[in-house]
Amino acid sequence: MRTMGHEAPAGDLRLANLTKRFGIFTAVDDLSLTIPQGSFFALLGASGCGKTTTLRMIAGLEEPTSGQVLLGDRDIARLRPYKRPVNTVFQSYALFPHLDINENVAFGLRRRGIRKVADQVDRMLALVQLEGYGRRRPAQLSGGQQQRVALARALINHPQVLLLDEPLGALDLKLRRQMQIELKRIQTEVGITFVHVTHDQEEAMTMADTVAVMNAGKIEQLGAPADIYEFPATAFVANFLGQSNLLAGEAGGTSGDHVLVSAHGGRFSVPAARARLDRGPVFLGVRPEKLHLVGTAAEVPAGHQHVGGVVTDASYVGVSTQYLVKTAWGSELSAFSANSGVGGQLPVGAPVVAHWDPRHAFLLRREPGEDDRTTPLLDEPPVSVLS
Amino acid sequence: MTALAHVPTSSGQPAAPPAARRGRYRLLPYLLLLPGAAWLLIFFALPLLQLAAASLYDPSGSLSTGYALTWAVGNYPDALQAYWPQFVRSFAYSAIALVLALLMGYPLAYAIAQKAGRWKNLLLVCVVAPMFTSFLVRTLAWKTILSDNGALVGLLRDVHLLGPDGRLLATPIAVVLGLTYNFLPFLVLPLYASLERLDYRLLEAASDLYASPLRAFRKVTLPLSMPGLIAGTLLFFIPATGDYINAELLGTPNEYMIGNLIDSAFLVRLDYPQGAALSFLLMAAILAVVFVYLRKAGTEEVL
Ligand SMILES: Nc1ncnc2c1ncn2[C@@H]1O[C@H](COP(=O)(O)OP(=O)(O)OP(=O)(O)O)[C@@H](O)[C@H]1O
Ligand SMILES: [Mg+2]
Q1: Residues in domain ABC transmembrane type-1 (chain B) (predicted)?
Q2: Among the atoms of ligand 1, which is closest to the Cα of residue A214?
Q3: What is the pLDDT of residue A183?
Q4: Structural domain containing residue A351
């Protein structure tokens, strides 16, 4: 850092009303958020929602249409990329094909005039488990190895902010977990601010202090992973981060500290603290692992609420069994039941009662006219014992 | 064949093709090579041999009395002794022209390849367009451009870059300018092809890794355009060194290059042994320069 000659005052990364338009298309829409110094920030969102564009504006590779990028109290939005204490792990790797791995990794150090780089490069290559690959060219490495070189090439500079655009996407599960642990360790040790774009929710949840879920250029929800998962703010978030059974209903005001909901002819309630609104069209949401299946209504524990249905599908995935339950009105709810050895398998076609603790349900805004939103099981990639 | 027939082919891979078909495939590359090789043999290798023989003829012979192959190796040192200034001049002129062409051609190729967007094809056509007219006509046009009462000379005289009766035509400047202009496309096209393939995201990565635009050019763009740069400089330098039209039309005998001497040896003085010896000397000199150049600049992709 000291050799960089443009030491910035330590500080948080702040995006203020950041907007990027390509022609009439708005890729990033009035984005405002603060990423505390040294924190691990994960950006999640569907493909094309503007994640890469956001990172590119922080890196200086894309000029914002409007808005500010602040590091500490310095607006860096119009600083040239090579003047920013920010490095990027590119989604496309962008390794230099004419340089060997050693020189690729050393590129940033050399540009800052550091002569003795061999030790640092070796240490970095060891970190990404590529010792002995230093003399190869990028074209002689596998996709996952190239990705790790891209990671090493950015990390070696110890920037103030490290932008990671799906940096582990090409790695197998085991290597990915190891890299996650390494990344997290480096981040806590060195105190670099990480902005991490990923499609892997588990990765985002296990690594990040703060997760932001992006949709169509806007942040839908931002918060600690558990908070977002347990109490999503919108239907999009509820189904993007994990999956949810969302039943279309009407909220009819509060009674005590509960919001009353009527849906599909049944009457339900949700604690007011878990309701985003208390009147009008709503989604009543329950996560599949919070939905329990029993044979008859008599077995439903006191205080739980329930709907009846028929098992239409049961997939055994080792740690759990995933059921689809068709309700009387035709929607298919999903329910995960842990294979804890208690209770047997429910056969397809069996009539069941699905029940949940209202403290685990949540209430979200629904556009009038929108029907139930339940996701098919194949959305969540289960750790299958079969394949 | 029998052994092949017993190899089980149930592993999912297609069975090996029968030996006869495989044999035909093995011959195919050579068959494709045949027309070109025959052409080269008849119109290049044989005349070259003939020329080599001519360079060793007895120099006292003439077209009317006939030549005798006397292995007169002395033709070579004689030719070099008589004409070494023209040799030096040939290389000097084409080297200066090459530098000028690089200064113009690299930015041009870069702009067309990376910045031109939808104008790319039109600009490429513009680069090639002069080739639609003959070399001779183009050079004659330069004679007009550089003429003493032309606009260019007038302007240069007005701004006192040229004296009141200074001129461009019939000077080394005119010859170098002519060479630069005539061979520029040969430099630009291969350079363009290299730069076109350059991934701009690599420049972004360089810039992200603290490289200023100048450093990014030196460390990324330039090395990655090296194959095109080498091909282009060779395609420019080799014909420019052997050229004689530019010196003939835009210069005077004081600007004559080695090509002019070969031309006059064969067509005016009818001194075949000397013409042939000069040709081989030129060839050897160019080969030597190219060899040294490739040794220095060549990456493994080129050599
Ligand atoms: N240079 C550009 N010109 C026009 N549109 C662009 C440009 N770059 C990006 N876009 C558009 O902006 C939107 C956001 O792109 P971006 O690359 O940020 O998506 P992303 O969230 O990173 O997606 P992914 O997860 O697939 O990488 C996309 O719809 C894309 O088509
Ligand atoms: Mg992206």
Answers
A1: 87-293
A2: 21
A3: 87
A4: 243-376
Q: Which is the closest atom of ligand 1 to the Cα of A199?
A: 25
The answer to whether residue A90 neighbours chain B at the CB level (below 8 Å) is yes
Contacts of A168 (CB under 8 A, 6+ apart): A147, A176, A179, A180, A198, A200, A203
**Ligand 1 probe mutation, A20, A51, A220, most atoms within 8 A of CB:** A51
Q: Which residues line ligand 1 (CB under 6 A)?
A: A 22, 25, 27, 45, 47-53, 91
Q: Could you tell me if B230 lies within 8 Å of chain A, comparing CB atoms?
A: no
CA torsion angle A377 A382 A385 A387 (round to 10) = 80
Residue B4: pLDDT band with limits 50, 70, 90: very low
CB pairs under 8 A between A and B: 63
Which residue among A164, A194, A226 closes a domain? Answer: A226
Answer with the one of A226, A257, A292 that is the final residue of a domain.
A226
Which residues of A are less than 8 Å from B201 in CB distance? 90, 92, 94
- DSSP string spanning B33-71? HHHHHHHHIIIIIHHHHHHHHHTTB-TT-BTTTB--B--
ipTM rounded to 2 decimals? 0.81
| Of B227, B225, B205, the residue nearest B216 (C-alpha) | B205
DSSP A311-373: EEEEEE-SSEEEEEEEETTS-EEEEEEE-SSSS-PPPTT-EEEEEE-GGG-EEEE--TT---E
User: Which residues of A fall within a CB distance of 8 Å from B212?
Assistant: 80, 82
What percent of chain B clears pLDDT 70, i.e. is strictly above it?
Answer: 90
- Considering the domain architecture, whether residues A142 and A207 belong to the same structural domain is answered as yes
What is the percentage of chain B residues whose pLDDT exceeds 90? 72
- For residue B195, the chain A residues in CB contact (below 8 A) are none
CATH code of residue A169? 3.40.50.300
- pLDDT tops 50 at residue A5: no
Q: For residue A329, is it within any domain?
A: yes
Q: Radius of gyration of chain B from Cα atoms?
A: 26
Q: Which residue has the tokens 């450093």?
A: B215
pLDDT of residue B17: 52
Shortest alpha-carbon distance between residue B263 and chain A (Å): 45
Is pLDDT at A86 greater than 70 in this prediction?
yes
**What is the dotted CATH code of the domain comprising B77-297?**
1.10.3720.10
Cβ distance A45 to A240 under 8 Å?
yes
What DSSP character marks residue B217? I
By the 8 A CB rule, do A215 and A239 touch?
Answer: no
What would the two tokens of residue A365 be? 């805004």
**What mean pLDDT is reported for chain A?**
89
- Shortest CA distance from A81: residue in chain B: B208
Residues B72 and B236: beta-carbon distance below 8 Å:
no
The count of domains in chain A is 2
